[in-house]
Amino acid sequence: MTLENQELDDFEKRTRALLEESVTRIDGRIRSRLNQARHAALAELERPRKPFWRSFALAPAAGVLAVVVLAVVLWVPRPGQLLPVTEVASNAVEDLDLMADGETFDLIQQGDGGFYEWAVAQADAGQEATS
Amino acid sequence: MSAFATLASVYNTPVAMHGDVDITDSNTTTGSRALNQFLASVELKAFKIAQSALRHEHDALDAVQDAMLQLTRAYADRPAEEWRPLFYRILENRIRDMQRRRTVRARIMAWLPTHRDEEDEEAFDPITQAPSEELTPPRRLEIDEAMTALEKALHDLPNRQRQAFLLRNLEGMDVAQVASAMGCSEGSVKTHHFRALKALRARLGEFST
Question: Does residue A5 belong to the interface with chain B, where contact is any CB pair within 8 Å?
Fold first, then answer.
């Protein structure tokens, strides 16, 4: 053993003695707190623990259920559901075209309502024939 | 509260001696008794290690308590020989978490005008703080000064060096156990320990106790 190692060993002995002294000086309040902490930790052993496998037992069923719910929400149309935005937009464009159409306006002004009455009657007759 | 009442409360406090535990409960199993003995054997040194790293009594107590809980919850079924390195590994992780959190908190608090830590405002109780041993005042002063210097020097060491030094010199673990606790090779433990010793020697010189 070299001199340096011997000195290191002496130094270690002194530091070790000092550290052990510092442990013996830990006051009663801290010791009491540590004792309580130990009891609290040991109380965990008394608690019934849930088996590891049980936490995963319902995982497949829950996954399938989640997929089904998602599918229902996404694909099944709900009553009173609003039309898609693109469809609404195209209808609005058609309405604008009709209103801007000068011929249609002239027909209404000329009081030629007979054509429309005939068209409605034809439509009703067609529906009765199919039903 | 009167002085007498203060004294009475101190004397009535159920002060636990090292290893003191109620094992009269019939439900206490052999396993829990062994775990209790183990925890009682490490708790004081674990507290000193945590306090050396954190320099804060409450944080050190919290760290030790968390390590105890974690060991009991997760590793109580493991062989008793594995408990010591596992416990100190958990403790070190907890200490590191607290140090990180403290760094973040310090950054946040630096932006606030004034902050006073409530825990620092606790009244100092000379009775509970007083060491129990009878020493002559000069000798006590000498030891106190050496201890303070050592604790300061230990705190200023890098984490890994401090951990290696304390596990070897305070807990008395061998190199293999320290390596297991630190999650590194035995060669790394020797390096950390050597560097810690070198730094402490340079800092403290040949102090005597």
Answer: no
- Which of B43, B124, B157, B190 to mutate: most A Cβ within 10 Å? B43
What lies within 8 Å, CB to CB, of B179 at 6+ separation is B185, B186, B188, B189
- To the nearest whole Å, the CA of A93 is away from the closest chain B CA by 57
Q: Domain locations in chain A?
A: 1-48, 101-131
Pairwise CA distance, residues A90 & B53, whole Å: 71
CA angle B34, B39, B41 (to 5 degrees): 95
CB of B183 within 8 A of CB of B137?
no
A48-86 pLDDT, tens digit per residue, is 666 555 656 667 777 888 888 888 878 776 665 555 555
Mean pLDDT of chain B: 79
Cβ B35–A45 below 8 Å, yes or no? yes
> Half-sphere exposure (CA, 13 Å, Cβ side) for B67?
34
pLDDT digits (tens, 9 = 90+) for B143-178: 888 888 998 999 999 999 999 999 999 999 999 999
Residue span(s) of chain B under CATH 1.10.1740 come to 28-116
The ipTM is 0.71
Helix axes B175-182, B159-169, angle to 10 degrees: 140
Which CATH number fits the domain B28-116, given the four candidates 2.30.30, 1.10.1060, 1.10.1740, 3.30.420? Answer: 1.10.1740
- pLDDT tens digits, B55-95: 889 999 999 999 999 999 999 999 999 999 999 999 999 99
Nearest to B92 by CA among B53, B57, B62: B53
pLDDT exceeds 90 at position B23: no
